[in-house]
Prior knowledge:
The protein has about 350 residues and is mostly helical. It has 13 helices and seven strands.
Amino acid sequence: MFFSLAINPIVFSIGSLPVHWYGLILGVGALAGLFLAIQEGKRFNIPQEFFMDLLLLGVPSAIIGARIYFVAFKWDEYKDNFIDVFKIWNGGIAIYGALIGAIICGIIYFRYKGYPFWRIVDICAPGLLAGQMIGRWGNFINQEAYGGVVEESFLRDKLHLPDFIVNQMYIGDAFHHPTFLYESLWSLLGILLLMVLRRQKFVRAGEIFLSYFIWYSIGRFFIEALRTDSLGFNGSSGVASLINGLWSPMKWMGFEQGYLDPAYGNIRISQLLALLIILVAIALIVVRRVTGQSSAYYSDPIVSTKAAAADSVVPDHAVNTPQNTPQVVQPEEEKTENGEPKE
Protein backbone atom coordinates (compact mmCIF):
# COMPACT_ATOMS: atom_id res chain seq x y z
CA MET A 1 0.00 0.00 0.00
CA PHE A 2 1.38 3.41 -0.95
CA PHE A 3 0.64 6.80 0.47
CA SER A 4 0.69 10.19 -1.26
CA LEU A 5 3.68 11.15 0.84
CA ALA A 6 5.82 8.25 2.06
CA ILE A 7 8.20 10.43 4.08
CA ASN A 8 6.96 13.10 6.45
CA PRO A 9 8.33 16.44 5.18
CA ILE A 10 8.58 17.72 8.76
CA VAL A 11 11.60 16.47 10.73
CA PHE A 12 10.44 17.76 14.11
CA SER A 13 8.76 20.77 15.63
CA ILE A 14 10.00 23.34 18.11
CA GLY A 15 6.80 24.30 19.85
CA SER A 16 4.48 25.32 17.04
CA LEU A 17 7.37 25.88 14.61
CA PRO A 18 7.88 22.93 12.23
CA VAL A 19 11.37 22.15 10.94
CA HIS A 20 11.14 20.87 7.37
CA TRP A 21 13.44 18.34 5.77
CA TYR A 22 13.63 20.64 2.74
CA GLY A 23 15.28 23.49 4.64
CA LEU A 24 17.51 21.15 6.63
CA ILE A 25 18.79 19.45 3.46
CA LEU A 26 19.46 22.79 1.77
CA GLY A 27 21.44 23.81 4.86
CA VAL A 28 23.53 20.63 4.75
CA GLY A 29 24.19 21.25 1.05
CA ALA A 30 25.35 24.80 1.77
CA LEU A 31 27.72 23.59 4.51
CA ALA A 32 29.14 20.90 2.22
CA GLY A 33 29.86 23.54 -0.41
CA LEU A 34 31.45 25.77 2.23
CA PHE A 35 33.72 22.93 3.37
CA LEU A 36 35.00 22.30 -0.16
CA ALA A 37 35.64 26.00 -0.74
CA ILE A 38 37.52 26.41 2.56
CA GLN A 39 39.70 23.38 1.87
CA GLU A 40 40.70 24.64 -1.58
CA GLY A 41 41.04 28.19 -0.26
CA LYS A 42 43.79 27.01 2.09
CA ARG A 43 45.87 26.22 -0.97
CA PHE A 44 45.82 29.93 -1.83
CA ASN A 45 46.10 31.21 1.75
CA ILE A 46 42.58 32.63 1.72
CA PRO A 47 41.17 32.80 5.27
CA GLN A 48 38.17 30.59 5.98
CA GLU A 49 36.29 33.60 7.38
CA PHE A 50 36.15 34.95 3.83
CA PHE A 51 34.14 31.94 2.64
CA MET A 52 32.00 31.84 5.78
CA ASP A 53 30.94 35.44 5.23
CA LEU A 54 30.36 34.64 1.57
CA LEU A 55 28.01 31.83 2.59
CA LEU A 56 26.08 34.05 5.00
CA LEU A 57 25.54 36.59 2.22
CA GLY A 58 25.28 34.21 -0.72
CA VAL A 59 22.65 31.78 0.57
CA PRO A 60 19.94 34.42 1.16
CA SER A 61 20.80 36.02 -2.17
CA ALA A 62 20.53 32.66 -3.93
CA ILE A 63 17.21 31.81 -2.28
CA ILE A 64 15.74 35.21 -3.15
CA GLY A 65 16.95 34.93 -6.75
CA ALA A 66 15.65 31.38 -7.06
CA ARG A 67 12.23 32.27 -5.72
CA ILE A 68 11.88 35.41 -7.85
CA TYR A 69 12.82 33.41 -10.95
CA PHE A 70 10.27 30.69 -10.19
CA VAL A 71 7.43 33.02 -9.19
CA ALA A 72 7.99 35.24 -12.24
CA PHE A 73 7.21 32.35 -14.56
CA LYS A 74 4.23 31.21 -12.50
CA TRP A 75 2.83 34.59 -11.55
CA ASP A 76 -0.72 33.61 -12.44
CA GLU A 77 -0.63 31.05 -9.63
CA TYR A 78 0.67 33.54 -7.05
CA LYS A 79 -0.90 36.89 -7.90
CA ASP A 80 -4.09 36.08 -5.95
CA ASN A 81 -2.22 34.33 -3.10
CA PHE A 82 0.74 36.59 -2.56
CA ILE A 83 1.56 35.17 0.85
CA ASP A 84 2.40 31.85 -0.84
CA VAL A 85 5.36 33.54 -2.52
CA PHE A 86 7.24 33.33 0.78
CA LYS A 87 6.48 29.64 1.51
CA ILE A 88 9.70 28.27 0.08
CA TRP A 89 9.57 25.24 2.38
CA ASN A 90 6.87 23.92 0.08
CA GLY A 91 9.38 23.94 -2.79
CA GLY A 92 9.33 26.06 -5.90
CA ILE A 93 12.80 27.50 -6.32
CA ALA A 94 14.71 27.54 -9.60
CA ILE A 95 18.43 26.74 -9.68
CA TYR A 96 19.19 29.22 -12.46
CA GLY A 97 17.58 31.97 -10.41
CA ALA A 98 19.69 30.90 -7.45
CA LEU A 99 22.84 31.19 -9.54
CA ILE A 100 21.88 34.66 -10.73
CA GLY A 101 21.31 35.82 -7.15
CA ALA A 102 24.55 34.23 -5.91
CA ILE A 103 26.64 35.68 -8.76
CA ILE A 104 25.33 39.22 -8.18
CA CYS A 105 26.14 38.85 -4.48
CA GLY A 106 29.60 37.47 -5.33
CA ILE A 107 30.47 40.34 -7.68
CA ILE A 108 29.71 42.88 -4.95
CA TYR A 109 31.39 40.92 -2.15
CA PHE A 110 34.57 40.10 -4.08
CA ARG A 111 34.97 43.72 -5.14
CA TYR A 112 34.55 44.80 -1.52
CA LYS A 113 37.21 42.32 -0.39
CA GLY A 114 39.53 43.09 -3.31
CA TYR A 115 39.64 39.56 -4.75
CA PRO A 116 39.44 38.87 -8.51
CA PHE A 117 36.01 37.49 -9.41
CA TRP A 118 37.15 34.69 -11.74
CA ARG A 119 39.71 33.32 -9.28
CA ILE A 120 37.26 33.00 -6.39
CA VAL A 121 34.36 31.53 -8.38
CA ASP A 122 36.78 28.89 -9.68
CA ILE A 123 37.38 27.82 -6.09
CA CYS A 124 33.65 27.83 -5.33
CA ALA A 125 32.54 25.84 -8.41
CA PRO A 126 32.80 22.31 -6.92
CA GLY A 127 31.02 23.60 -3.81
CA LEU A 128 28.13 24.84 -5.94
CA LEU A 129 27.74 21.37 -7.41
CA ALA A 130 27.90 19.85 -3.92
CA GLY A 131 25.09 22.11 -2.78
CA GLN A 132 22.99 21.14 -5.79
CA MET A 133 23.79 17.46 -5.39
CA ILE A 134 22.56 17.42 -1.80
CA GLY A 135 19.81 19.99 -2.29
CA ARG A 136 18.02 17.81 -4.85
CA TRP A 137 17.17 15.40 -2.05
CA GLY A 138 14.93 18.14 -0.69
CA ASN A 139 12.89 17.74 -3.89
CA PHE A 140 12.81 14.01 -3.18
CA ILE A 141 11.32 14.55 0.27
CA ASN A 142 8.72 16.98 -1.08
CA GLN A 143 7.88 14.69 -4.01
CA GLU A 144 8.53 17.41 -6.56
CA ALA A 145 10.71 17.88 -9.63
CA TYR A 146 9.99 14.28 -10.62
CA GLY A 147 9.71 12.83 -14.11
CA GLY A 148 7.13 11.06 -16.19
CA VAL A 149 5.40 7.78 -15.40
CA VAL A 150 7.47 4.58 -15.34
CA GLU A 151 6.86 0.99 -14.34
CA GLU A 152 7.81 -0.12 -10.86
CA SER A 153 10.04 -2.76 -12.45
CA PHE A 154 12.06 0.01 -14.10
CA LEU A 155 12.94 1.47 -10.71
CA ARG A 156 13.55 -1.83 -8.96
CA ASP A 157 15.01 -4.08 -11.63
CA LYS A 158 16.74 -1.68 -14.04
CA LEU A 159 17.88 1.07 -11.68
CA HIS A 160 18.10 -1.23 -8.62
CA LEU A 161 16.86 1.53 -6.32
CA PRO A 162 16.21 0.86 -2.61
CA ASP A 163 12.66 0.67 -1.33
CA PHE A 164 12.63 4.10 0.30
CA ILE A 165 13.31 5.79 -3.06
CA VAL A 166 10.92 3.58 -5.01
CA ASN A 167 8.12 4.17 -2.50
CA GLN A 168 8.66 7.93 -2.52
CA MET A 169 8.45 7.93 -6.32
CA TYR A 170 4.89 6.62 -6.12
CA ILE A 171 3.06 9.90 -6.63
CA GLY A 172 -0.62 10.18 -7.34
CA ASP A 173 -1.43 6.76 -8.73
CA ALA A 174 1.80 5.88 -10.53
CA PHE A 175 5.56 5.57 -10.23
CA HIS A 176 7.71 8.33 -11.70
CA HIS A 177 11.26 8.96 -12.91
CA PRO A 178 13.50 9.96 -9.94
CA THR A 179 14.90 12.97 -11.83
CA PHE A 180 16.18 14.38 -8.53
CA LEU A 181 18.48 11.33 -8.33
CA TYR A 182 19.67 11.66 -11.93
CA GLU A 183 20.66 15.26 -11.34
CA SER A 184 22.23 14.49 -7.96
CA LEU A 185 24.45 11.79 -9.47
CA TRP A 186 25.32 14.03 -12.42
CA SER A 187 26.45 16.70 -9.95
CA LEU A 188 28.59 14.16 -8.08
CA LEU A 189 30.38 13.23 -11.31
CA GLY A 190 30.82 16.93 -12.00
CA ILE A 191 32.53 17.49 -8.64
CA LEU A 192 35.03 14.74 -9.39
CA LEU A 193 35.62 16.11 -12.89
CA LEU A 194 36.26 19.67 -11.67
CA MET A 195 38.61 18.46 -8.94
CA VAL A 196 40.69 16.62 -11.54
CA LEU A 197 40.51 19.49 -14.02
CA ARG A 198 41.71 22.15 -11.59
CA ARG A 199 44.95 20.23 -11.03
CA GLN A 200 45.84 20.46 -14.73
CA LYS A 201 48.53 23.02 -15.57
CA PHE A 202 46.83 24.30 -18.73
CA VAL A 203 43.67 25.53 -16.94
CA ARG A 204 43.28 29.32 -16.88
CA ALA A 205 41.45 31.56 -14.44
CA GLY A 206 37.68 31.34 -14.84
CA GLU A 207 37.69 28.08 -16.76
CA ILE A 208 36.73 25.87 -13.81
CA PHE A 209 33.67 28.03 -13.16
CA LEU A 210 32.71 28.05 -16.84
CA SER A 211 33.28 24.28 -17.01
CA TYR A 212 30.86 23.95 -14.10
CA PHE A 213 28.19 25.73 -16.14
CA ILE A 214 28.88 23.56 -19.18
CA TRP A 215 28.73 20.31 -17.22
CA TYR A 216 25.65 21.18 -15.21
CA SER A 217 23.78 22.52 -18.24
CA ILE A 218 24.46 19.39 -20.31
CA GLY A 219 22.91 17.25 -17.61
CA ARG A 220 20.07 19.67 -17.02
CA PHE A 221 19.19 19.74 -20.74
CA PHE A 222 18.61 16.00 -20.89
CA ILE A 223 17.08 15.56 -17.43
CA GLU A 224 14.72 18.52 -17.70
CA ALA A 225 12.72 16.94 -20.54
CA LEU A 226 11.87 13.97 -18.30
CA ARG A 227 10.12 16.23 -15.78
CA THR A 228 6.43 17.04 -15.67
CA ASP A 229 6.70 20.40 -13.86
CA SER A 230 8.93 22.34 -16.25
CA LEU A 231 8.52 26.07 -16.69
CA GLY A 232 7.64 26.61 -20.34
CA PHE A 233 6.60 29.10 -22.97
CA ASN A 234 5.25 29.13 -26.50
CA GLY A 235 8.12 29.57 -28.92
CA SER A 236 8.85 28.91 -32.57
CA SER A 237 8.29 25.40 -33.84
CA GLY A 238 11.80 25.44 -35.31
CA VAL A 239 13.44 25.95 -31.91
CA ALA A 240 11.18 23.30 -30.38
CA SER A 241 12.15 20.83 -33.13
CA LEU A 242 15.85 21.59 -32.63
CA ILE A 243 15.60 20.93 -28.89
CA ASN A 244 13.65 17.71 -29.43
CA GLY A 245 16.19 16.59 -32.01
CA LEU A 246 19.11 17.17 -29.66
CA TRP A 247 17.26 15.26 -26.94
CA SER A 248 16.49 12.27 -29.21
CA PRO A 249 19.47 10.13 -28.01
CA MET A 250 17.53 9.69 -24.76
CA LYS A 251 14.77 7.96 -26.73
CA TRP A 252 17.29 5.48 -28.09
CA MET A 253 18.05 4.56 -24.47
CA GLY A 254 14.38 3.97 -23.71
CA PHE A 255 13.46 7.28 -22.05
CA GLU A 256 10.34 9.28 -22.86
CA GLN A 257 9.76 12.97 -22.26
CA GLY A 258 7.54 14.03 -19.39
CA TYR A 259 4.22 15.67 -20.19
CA LEU A 260 4.25 19.39 -21.01
CA ASP A 261 0.83 20.96 -21.45
CA PRO A 262 0.69 22.43 -25.00
CA ALA A 263 -1.43 25.29 -23.65
CA TYR A 264 1.38 26.14 -21.25
CA GLY A 265 4.13 26.06 -23.85
CA ASN A 266 6.07 23.99 -26.34
CA ILE A 267 9.57 24.85 -25.11
CA ARG A 268 10.96 24.11 -21.66
CA ILE A 269 12.72 27.23 -20.41
CA SER A 270 15.45 25.34 -18.58
CA GLN A 271 16.30 23.32 -21.69
CA LEU A 272 16.65 26.41 -23.87
CA LEU A 273 18.58 28.23 -21.17
CA ALA A 274 20.90 25.23 -20.74
CA LEU A 275 21.79 25.31 -24.45
CA LEU A 276 22.44 29.05 -24.36
CA ILE A 277 24.63 28.74 -21.25
CA ILE A 278 26.73 25.99 -22.85
CA LEU A 279 27.33 28.12 -25.96
CA VAL A 280 28.08 31.28 -23.97
CA ALA A 281 30.46 29.46 -21.59
CA ILE A 282 32.42 27.91 -24.47
CA ALA A 283 32.57 31.27 -26.25
CA LEU A 284 33.83 32.98 -23.09
CA ILE A 285 36.62 30.45 -22.64
CA VAL A 286 37.76 30.98 -26.25
CA VAL A 287 37.42 34.79 -26.21
CA ARG A 288 39.16 35.19 -22.85
CA ARG A 289 42.11 33.12 -24.10
CA VAL A 290 42.37 34.88 -27.46
CA THR A 291 42.17 38.37 -25.96
CA GLY A 292 44.52 37.55 -23.06
CA GLN A 293 41.91 38.23 -20.38
CA SER A 294 42.62 34.81 -18.88
CA SER A 295 46.40 35.22 -18.74
CA ALA A 296 46.45 33.98 -15.14
CA TYR A 297 46.41 30.24 -14.53
CA TYR A 298 44.24 28.53 -11.95
CA SER A 299 47.30 27.53 -9.93
CA ASP A 300 48.71 31.08 -9.77
CA PRO A 301 48.73 32.84 -6.37
CA ILE A 302 45.62 34.83 -5.45
CA VAL A 303 46.19 38.24 -3.89
CA SER A 304 43.59 40.64 -2.54
CA THR A 305 44.18 44.20 -3.77
CA LYS A 306 42.82 45.49 -0.47
CA ALA A 307 45.25 43.38 1.55
CA ALA A 308 48.16 44.36 -0.69
CA ALA A 309 47.32 48.05 -0.30
CA ALA A 310 47.08 47.71 3.48
CA ASP A 311 50.48 46.01 3.65
CA SER A 312 52.10 48.82 1.67
CA VAL A 313 51.01 51.49 4.18
CA VAL A 314 53.32 52.10 7.18
CA PRO A 315 51.19 52.81 10.25
CA ASP A 316 51.82 56.08 12.08
CA HIS A 317 52.81 54.35 15.30
CA ALA A 318 55.60 52.60 13.43
CA VAL A 319 57.32 55.93 12.60
CA ASN A 320 60.16 57.19 14.83
CA THR A 321 59.86 54.33 17.27
CA PRO A 322 63.14 53.14 18.75
CA GLN A 323 63.23 50.01 16.62
CA ASN A 324 62.49 52.02 13.47
CA THR A 325 64.73 55.01 14.23
CA PRO A 326 67.99 54.86 12.29
CA GLN A 327 70.93 54.32 14.63
CA VAL A 328 74.08 56.42 14.06
CA VAL A 329 77.20 54.32 14.60
CA GLN A 330 80.22 56.34 15.71
CA PRO A 331 83.60 55.19 14.40
CA GLU A 332 85.91 53.78 17.03
CA GLU A 333 88.91 55.93 18.08
CA GLU A 334 92.28 54.69 17.00
CA LYS A 335 94.34 53.41 19.89
CA THR A 336 98.05 52.79 20.57
CA GLU A 337 99.49 49.40 21.34
CA ASN A 338 99.04 50.08 25.08
CA GLY A 339 95.37 50.82 24.57
CA GLU A 340 95.76 54.58 24.99
CA PRO A 341 93.85 56.83 22.56
CA LYS A 342 96.03 58.39 19.93
CA GLU A 343 96.50 62.12 20.26
